[in-house]
# Entry
Amino acid sequence: MIKKNGLMFLWTTILISSLILTGCGGQQTTTPEPQAAVEETQEVATPAAEKKVVTIIFTQEFDTLNPLYSNMWFAMVTFDLWNAWAWMFDENNEAYPYLVTEMPSVENGGISEDGKTITLKLRDDLKWSDGEPLTSEDFIFTYEMAIDKNNAVASSYPYDQVLSMEAPDAQTVVMNFEEPFAPWEATFWKGILPAHILKPVYESENTINNAAWNLKPDVGCGPYILDEWESGSFARFVVNENFWGTPPIIDEVFFRFVPDDASQVAALQAGDADIGSFIAWNDTPTLEEVGLKIMAQPSGYNEGIFPVINEEKGSIAVDDVRVRKAIIMSIDREAIVRDILLGKTYVPASYWDSLPFYNDPPLENYPYDPEGAKKLLEEAGWIDANGDGVREKDGVDLALTYGTTIQELRQDVQAVIQQELAQVGIKTELLSYDADVFFASYDQNGPAAKGELDLMQWMDSTSFPDPDYYYWFCDEIPTDDYPAGSNWQFYCNEELDALFRLEATQVDANERQKTFQKINKIFYDEVIWIGLWANPDIWAVSPKMQNVKFSGVTPFFNIGEWDITQ
Amino acid sequence: MTRYIIKRLLQGIPLIFIISIILFVLMMNMGDPIATMGGRSITRPSDRIRLTRQLGLDKPIYMQYIYWLIGNDWTKVDLDGDSVAETSGTRRGILRGDFGTSLVNRGKPVTKVIGERLPNTIMLMVASEIIVILGALAVGVYSAIKQYSWFDHTITALSFIGYSMPIFFIALLSMYIFAVLFKRWGLPYLPTVGMFDPKVGKTTGQILVHMILPVFSMSVVSLASYSRYIRSTMLEVLSQDYIRTAKAKGLPRRDVVFIHALKNASLPIVTIVGLDLPLLLGGAVVTEQIFAWPGMGRLFLDHVKRADTPVVMGILLMIAVAVVVFQILTDITYAWLDPRIRYEK
Amino acid sequence: MDSISAQSSPIARLSPDELEAPPLTLRQLAWRRFRRHKMAMFGGIVLILLFIYSIGGSFFFTEGYANYTQTELRLQPPSAAHPFGTDTVGRDALARTIYGGQISILIGLAAVIIETLMGILIGAAAGYYGGMIDSILMRFTEAMLNIPELFLLIVMAKNFGGKIPNITLFGREFSGSVVVIIIIIGLTSWMYLARIVRAEFLSIKENDFILAARATGTPNSQIIFQHILPNSIAPIVVSATLGVANAILSEAYISFLGLGVQPPTATWGNMLDRANNYLETAPWLWFVPGAFILLTVLSINFLGDGLRDALDPRSRTI
# Structure
């Protein structure tokens, strides 16, 4: 016979436990409120002013908050709030000292004559939010953690370039390199780890992979400190009472996670949020209509097409520079920017377009000239003899595969470009992949890394605001023996290779500029990259916000000076 | 009965095992979790090599599965890339309750990643299931009693429409009408996305208001099919002899319908509800995506996009276990409600 | 409507005429029952109209026009030149619903063929042979059933996405992703059908005529495909019909999440992709394809319901 009681018990348990689960969800989050309310009444009693809260919308959630463990933009921008870079970058993307007293240079002795040693002088008033001093020990610890074999950090670059690092005293950090390391300014010290918190974890676990601090960094060194982060919903940062610098004006920074552009726009329109990021181009007029200010900040990113230039990979057609020129001339890039991006950006002529110093003299764009493109194709021997609208040579059609990631804007542009190329007799097959598939490595059968495509579209930057990049080295071509290779264009040009190796060691900016003039020239003549549009960070800012500036490198560099009016 | 339960549970184990293998094989070809770790830039080659090794992604699939299943603390792993395995593994494997850590939120245990979102989804599910059952009972019973009336015909047509309605369409349409148009017309309107208004905070009232549209979208489809089902079982029961007897005895109509007929008609409903409940999680994917509800469905999508095998496996396995458990519970409840059914001892 | 509701008093509704008419064949009976089902007839007619729309429409617009971008005309509201408006790169939404309809219907039908083949093969093998084969196949079926279909679809879509090149068929080029979607929908939806077929086989194989066929040494394949299968065709037809609706919906769901057929090939599903970004600014972008999907699925469901009643031998309505 069935035990009805037992069964009832089972069901009730399930019901109750699900209710408790749901209830907990509600409770966990409702409890802080009364507390907050209590605090508020206590604090507010004296100034009698309302708490100033700025709400920022993020369309993606941070993955982790440990500076070494995330390269995600949405995580990195928060470091300006609660952590710190050794030096920050202002709205002109110029570096200024923050944790250090001055920017190291050859003149002030911070950089040695041979360029192989960089010495940092730290401020002596730095302290963590729990009152502990922030010293060179924390810098050394950060370095050690970045290169530790047991730590699965997001990137050990540039710390793996360091030969050795010392801390002669509490305010001095000395970095020694084998070769002069030119991109140091843009790559080092994007966040510091508190040694006094994480060292015990490392000593007991042999790794900081699972440190609680990574997901709840309750000790920091910025003007704010993390108060609460609820997965999928929000993260709240409050004022760091122990901040060593000028206390911030706004009391609370509230990040709200919404998953898509539409929700972000709706929230901004409704006034539910004060700042939005990564605004889609076609949403800017809607937001401007309701009085939001749209701010575009160059961050070095450009959308572009990378042709595969290798006789063994991809179509042989693209290996001919005349075909590449024909391609660039048959795409009406100005029209794409004008119509689809609403004329809010421009067509970059150079990969270094957002770094005017290294794009000097600036390159001129190839014009939109389909007739010229047709002539070039004929010159190269591609003729449509059978009249099917597609050119051919030696019995092979001029048909290219053109791949990118699944993203509405990219797929739209792909369709436009396909049509424009068809008009000059180039047939394209459009392919789109999820990002983790498209960018997968050679041994994971990534279509780009395998050289399966002829034209590849994505967006990238240099080590902004440094011009250095590593894509185009001959030994970066992926092979079975080196599947991690990053030269997905399979392009090897000895001259270019040597120039890139040279610039990376040129600590003297003027020398480096000359090298980049040569690199730029090769890029232009060989059409190694087809720039589609410059991709600055687009911010939408409520008119209530005062004194808001953004940098393309450390976006919230002046968040302490922000104010909000009612 | 206890033996029957134990037997069913034992049968469930190989089933879950097969599911885990199918899923794991599928997951392995899904994408490169390291590809998106570079943020907006492409992951650097040196980091790629190191992370592949550190996260154990360089191992063959069957080894990865074994590590995932029983852990790797019994063996040595190579962390520094000198091809010498010298460090002891730390994973304990799913059989010992270690679901691993997320590749996206590195260091965060999968159980925690899921646990944070599960209540939000359950909230939606429980609310819509309650509405569905109550609504379907009311509509189904009424249209069964009033068979062939205009009400019955309307309900039949409507339920077909509801049943054929893609969730995203009803979601977008209701959002357009109740949030966008109502606002435009100056009527009281509903919020479009999220779980609460950050200005007001996460209060119960806020959550309830924000739940209206998602719950509505999720309920429509099930409501339509359940009410049709209830209608036909009710009709079947109402034509049974014992109902006629009851009517003949002169029992009040209300008693006949609600005590005699409904009790018996509710039997098959238990089955459907029990089997559907875990599958509702699937419907939540689209709803949560549209209404930006921080539940499991959105979690699944976000982590699938970054090929986060441990989390995706965790979610799918959890659902599979839930399905198995609910199947057993349904059988038992069924037997309990219907004395004609006996499971062999 | 459905069999159960009609059972209440079947005889009373016979007209004297029908009682005296000569006996009808099963097929005639089925057609007669089907014709009486008003909603099924409505569904059938709407489906034919939708077919005419998406096939006949291609005589008025070329596929090139459906994919023709005019960026300066983006997001135009419905007008005389573009009755359904234009999309984000200025393509005509009307022409895209026509060609999208073709692909959506193609996906629905082709996926169901795969689904039915798999369902029949697995169900028949399990039901006919029984024993070890049965328990292995059924455990596998159960395992697949235990994962919600949408989750399985998403995982599979990522797994096979971009792996199949474009295919040219009937002088038209089909994006490889169409084939991928057809295959994965087929692979994730056969389980219910397999169970139905198995149950049918289990009951039919005990009949005398099967035992006789076995006794005379008829090969197994012949028994399965010539003796049992034809006798269990009714539930298969109904299930396949409803399967088409399900496949069209699945395509829409997976495309809505951005993992479906990749543009520029249009389907009703991928025209809806990212629709919530245009909820307010361009409602025609999501309303029109959404309505087409709803209408198609609804009609197929009506049709399936009618078929179920008509083909059910236990249904005594005439």
Notes: The CA atoms of residues 69 and 247 of chain B lie 60 Å apart.
